[in-house]
Amino acid sequence: MTQSRHNTLVLACGALAKEVLALKASMNLADDVFDLQCLPANYHNYPDKIVPALKETLDGKGANYDHVLIGYGDCGTGGGLDRLLEDYPKAERLPGAHCYAFYAGLAEFDVMMEEELGSFFLTDYLVRHFKTLIIKGFGLERYPDLKEMYFKNYKRLIYISQEPTESLINEAREASEFLGLIFEHNHVGYGDLASRISILPKKERSYG
Predict the structure, then answer these.
(1) DSSP string, 44-55
(2) Structural domains of the chain, count
């Protein structure tokens, strides 16, 4: 018995899971338009794990899909992700170097970097998980002196929000104070992630 094929697999960073599902609901996409599978979000801190994990998933189930949208930018793989995808013509990744770029849009992200190279970015997900991914992930709880070493070249923290709340904005501001950086909030929405999801077929509406 052959396994049935689906339209699209969205194979993404776990940091995008909530956002992908929010977009799917807001765009009224049919349940079977795409399946979502996520790799652990803490690979954000371990980019060397991204390419092997993606390859394992593509080899294991990629043939069941007509198209695979990779929910990553380059994300610190040093071009390794693009080299991997040369062997998987049905798969494409999101544009840009990382999620900050494809959320903000490549042109807007370039403007922010031209204004200040020493910019540290947080998304909704990274604000919610700042303690786990940044404070604990970088070892700042156990070794407070590392904060100065890691962040000495940064001048400002930019919270590029998707669906900001007052609580998230306050948490982002607190993160900037913890790191000793100037705080800025730039609401960018979902950017190129929304653009890619939006071109998938939408659910047919019934009227009657």
Answers:
(1) GG-GGGHHHHHH
(2) 2
CB 116 within 8 Å of CB 153: no
Range of the domain at 147: 106-187
Q: What is the pLDDT of residue 63?
A: 86
Q: Which range among 21-30, 157-166, 198-207 shows the weakest confidence by mean pLDDT?
A: 198-207
Contact 155, 182 (CB under 8 A): yes
Residue 151 placed within a domain = yes
Name the nearest CA neighbour of 55 among 28, 91, 21, 31. 91
pLDDT tens by residue, 133-185: 999 999 999 999 999 999 999 999 999 999 999 999 999 999 999 999 999 99
What residue has token string 């170097």?
97
What would the two tokens of residue 149 be?
């070493």
Across the beta sheet with 156-161, the strand order is 119-122, 156-161, 182-187
Nearest of 129, 139, 178 to residue 157 by alpha carbon: 178
Tens digit of each residue's pLDDT (9 = 90 or more) over 71-81: 999 999 999 99
Question: What are residue 180's phi and psi, to 5 degrees?
Answer: 75, 35
pLDDT of residue 206: 42
Please tell me whether residues 58 and 125 are part of one structural domain. Answer: no
Q: Where are the alpha helices (DSSP H) in 41-190?
A: 50-61, 80-85, 99-104, 106-115, 124-128, 130, 146-151, 166-179
Residue type at position 53: A
Asked whether residue 207 is domain-assigned, the answer is no
Domain presence at residue 90: yes
